[in-house]
Amino acid sequence: MEVVPLGSADEIAAVAADVFEAIVARKPAAVLGLATGSTPLPAYRELIRRHQAGVGPSYTAVTCFNLDEYVGLPSGHEQSYRATIARELTDGLDVSPERVNGPDPSPDCLPTAGEGYEALIEAAGGVDVQLLGIGSDGHLAFNEPGSSLASRTRIKTLTAQTRKDNARFFGSLAQVPTHVLTQGLATILRARHLLLIATGEVKAVAVAAAVEGPVSASCPASVLQLHPHVTVLLDPAAASRLERLDHYREVYAAKPAWQGL
């Protein structure tokens, strides 16, 4: 795991955009793993800015896989994660909607949606780089504390706190779905490069547990310690609880330029 302490959310956005552009420039048909939420938005805006300025690579051949999807929303609902990703990133990069995938929450497909999504990712050759955020309790995607470290894509019940947190997007708590389809921790670990972004003091305790604590289902994000290629981008507030922060700064400052992330 490479921990990269940076100076601001804007700096994180630039570095994250560099990672995505590098893989697409090297592999035009790259498979990108996308996350929703507020944390990735600066990176998404930076990717779109560069693309529209004509300084980024073409994304027409990429394939995208979303981490999760709500269950029970009407087709085309603006708060579905498919619609959210289109609005926040893929439309701005001119990625065809047919190349953006998410777990299928339709009632007829729901019983086998997890297995179907796993097969779809495998058929695409696996995810080249997966963007991730972390919850204040250490959750990864919708894998809440207590989730199996060997879990695959499956249906999960949203906790009351998670539904309250997401109510701001829906107008009322009653409109927030109770269930979600989410990639499991083992599914996430199959991606070739994991790129975790964390900003703000509210994430500091979870970041410290994930990076420096024991691998435990009590902190699902700690499973990232088992992956051979993980990059963690942190602003000063999110990095503030790390005991080895000076070490991470020293190592990153001395990193050979040719090595990249």
Q: How does this model look, in words?
A:
By secondary structure, the protein is an alpha/beta fold. The chain has one domain: 3-Layer(aba) Sandwich (Rossmann fold), CATH 3.40.50. The chain is built from eight helices and ten strands. A seven-stranded parallel β-sheet has the order 1-10-9-6-2-3-5, with helices on both faces. β9 (193-198), α7 and β10 form a beta-alpha-beta unit. α1 packs across α2. The longest helix has 18 residues, at 9-26. The termini are close together.
Helix-strand makeup class:
alpha/beta
Neighbour order of strands in the largest sheet: 1-10-9-6-2-3-5
N- and C-termini, Cα separation: 11 Å
Low-confidence stretches: none
> Can you name the CATH architecture?
3-Layer(aba) Sandwich
- The number of helices is 8
* CATH class type: Alpha Beta
Provide the number of structural domains: 1
Major beta sheet summary? 7 strands, parallel
Q: Percentage of helical residues? A: 25-40%
Query: Strand-and-helix sequence, N→C?
Result: EHEHEEHEHEEHEHEHEH
